[in-house]
Amino acid sequence: MTEPAGTSGNPNAHVPGMPVVAVIGDGQLARMMQTEAIALGQSIRLLAGTPDSSAAQVAADVVLGDYTDLDDLREAVRGVDVMTFDHEHVPTGHLRQLISEGVNVQPGPEALVNAQDKLVMRRRLREIGAPVPPFAAIESVEDADAFFDAVDGAVCLKARRGGYDGHGVWFPATRKELAELTTKLLDAGTPLMAEQKVALVRELSAMVARRPSGQVVPWPVVESVQTNGICTEAVAPAPELSEELAERARQLAVSIAEELGVTGALAVELFEFRDGNGQPTIAVNELAMRPHNTGHWTQDGCVTSQFEQHLRAVLDYPLGSVETTSPVTVMANVLGGDADPELPMARRMADVWERFPAAKIHLYGKTWRAGRKIGHVNLAGDDLPRVRREANLAADYLVNARWADGYTV
Amino acid sequence: MTEPAGTSGNPNAHVPGMPVVAVIGDGQLARMMQTEAIALGQSIRLLAGTPDSSAAQVAADVVLGDYTDLDDLREAVRGVDVMTFDHEHVPTGHLRQLISEGVNVQPGPEALVNAQDKLVMRRRLREIGAPVPPFAAIESVEDADAFFDAVDGAVCLKARRGGYDGHGVWFPATRKELAELTTKLLDAGTPLMAEQKVALVRELSAMVARRPSGQVVPWPVVESVQTNGICTEAVAPAPELSEELAERARQLAVSIAEELGVTGALAVELFEFRDGNGQPTIAVNELAMRPHNTGHWTQDGCVTSQFEQHLRAVLDYPLGSVETTSPVTVMANVLGGDADPELPMARRMADVWERFPAAKIHLYGKTWRAGRKIGHVNLAGDDLPRVRREANLAADYLVNARWADGYTV
């Protein structure tokens, strides 16, 4: 008996004739892809680890399984039009195998490997002429020592794989500390690289979406504010960024997408710093080949959100307009605080809306855990300082259930 | 054993501590409520007739059942915070029973009855001083005859219940035709009323949302273009509408919501016509107590969409800003044409986006049927004639797979 197309999970979730996108990963990025899929007349097929995960809560076609298990992946992609991801951790070998079995994988493993391994990525970027801070593979304490000398002690040590949100990144203050860290991590089996710390002005993010057939569309460049290695705020467009530097950042992201063969959304996280002549310049920090925290503002500040654009891109549909709908849009993350306040989240939302009727709250269906990304607030307007202040007040209130500025009703 | 709250359908679909909204009805309005529920950290509980219906395709918590069956309704609302609707056809008696069992029903049966029965609605509107065209109950051919005389033959005959999209509305040209229609319909058991045809300038729609605790927020008034009794286009805000008349329309909608105790979204469909002095004026045509076709533009042209606002309103959350995000937004419906073109819908979407990158396509997960509402296109911009033309070209292309203006690539 031949199985009809697209019927691995729940065939009722898909209208005949419309494409089915399999999303590997069950976090908030998959969840927000589902909202956009719905508008496009679709519903995603989800490979989820648990039935109550952020994305599984809101999808009718869920395959439960493990993204490191080839058979689970096979089950999740049976009959779909395209397979995509909400993270970069699916083993490359599995993806190659699936491609050999005829699966349409976007972005493909040759691109993804650059988002999986920080050393591979930097070597590739250097190869294509993209600016990156000086870096080296660290396979011994001798490597670490040599790099320490080469960059005058300004060392950032990174795990090559698996880091995120400040995890897997260390800033050793001394040669001794670097040596000890290196020994400990290598002994634990963590492949390492090191990179020169730049004299950071701020962080920027240049996002693009690219179709398999070639079209690339860059969004406006945003400023990304990091707190303890986690993105906590994005301001679109990046304030006081010269048009020349913005254009350079966009072109850099476009050329990385093209040279690396990225499809779907690509976030190029950038350092802005001063060059030897004191002029502002940029270098690549990290790449993410999927919708990204620094692109959440597009949901409420741009004609086409990153989640819709990602789906369109991996399906090889023409990309949408990235015109902004407001002079400024600020995204502020809602991260679980030290404790979960007694006031229920629903009441906190109500309090935020009472004070800021234009605040767009996006929650991920996650329960509290210290430091966990549980949502974000988008706010659009024309008065930058005010929009920033209000977006951050709103996000902070959702975390702490009290107004950081002492406001009382 | 006590059952935990919110676990009638799929408990995994809901994060602990967040409210659960039960939506009765499985069409596109429920589908679009789900997209907004997702952003708010929720997921709707759906009472659906079939597992592949428009809304059931995209919801993880679906109770299959019949909205006229009290036990099915009970099953659907078990443990939820509030029960709401994507149509007005749930029997009022059932709603009263559920309320007596402690269910929070929004809007309640006392309000809903006015959207269920056109005669009850008109009597109530007259009572509260809202402008309505002259009308009468039609229980016999004598009633029809008398009304025909009273309005000089300008008769619109309507089924009191169950009409939509031009169904249940007749325009008899002669006294004889009216008598024959009346006899036939009354014999078939269709309760009737008649209303004077107005010398229509155009149709408008004034929408508001209202919370149980009283807050009411009106959206900008839109022009609604009807073709064969079906809304095919909405233009927001209504072009060349005087601020005085717009304000009167908004105030009328607000006072209807208040007087009738409507909660959630309320659409007041209006006739604009000339009064005895040749001055433009308005009268109420129909009421809908739920998100409405004339409010779809809010998804891409307003800070708060009608679907988000409806959920917030029935949950008694503070309502969101209804600022427009663009000078003009046009919604054009995609209605199944006489035949379904060979070109698959996915390719039609691609062609539309190729030509109009800013077109926002919303599809409902429905297959083709002549005249069926299968989606809509929203387009925002600042040049009204151009936006209207392009939105309609895009919607028309999705229906017919050819450009009405002869455009070729």
From TrEMBL, chains A, B:
Residues 122-315 form the ATP-grasp domain. Signal peptide: none annotated. It is an enzyme of class 6 (ligase). Pathway: Purine metabolism; IMP biosynthesis via de novo pathway; 5-amino-1-(5-phospho-D-ribosyl)imidazole-4-carboxylate from 5-amino-1-(5-phospho-D-ribosyl)imidazole (N5-CAIR route): step 1/2. It catalyses: 5-amino-1-(5-phospho-beta-D-ribosyl)imidazole + hydrogencarbonate + ATP = 5-carboxyamino-1-(5-phospho-D-ribosyl)imidazole + ADP + phosphate + 2 H(+). Its EC number is 6.3.4.18. GO terms for molecular function: 5-(carboxyamino)imidazole ribonucleotide synthase activity. InterPro entries: ATP-grasp (IPR011761), ATP-grasp_carboxylate-amine (IPR003135), ATP_grasp_subdomain_1 (IPR013815), PreATP-grasp_dom_sf (IPR016185), PurK (IPR005875), PurK_C (IPR040686), PurT/PurK_preATP-grasp (IPR054350), Rudment_hybrid_motif (IPR011054). Keywords: ATP-binding, Ligase, Nucleotide-binding, Purine biosynthesis. Gene3D superfamilies: 3.40.50.20, ATP-grasp fold, A domain, ATP-grasp fold, B domain. ATP binds at residues 118, 158, 195-198, 203, 285-286. Pfam families: ATP-grasp, PurK_C, RS_preATP-grasp-like. NCBIfam families: PRK06019.1-5, PRK06019.1-6, purK. Homodimer. Catalyzes the ATP-dependent conversion of 5-aminoimidazole ribonucleotide (AIR) and HCO(3)(-) to N5-carboxyaminoimidazole ribonucleotide (N5-CAIR). Catalyzes the ATP-dependent conversion of 5-aminoimidazole ribonucleotide (AIR) and HCO(3)- to N5-carboxyaminoimidazole ribonucleotide (N5-CAIR). Belongs to the PurK/PurT family. This is N5-carboxyaminoimidazole ribonucleotide synthase.
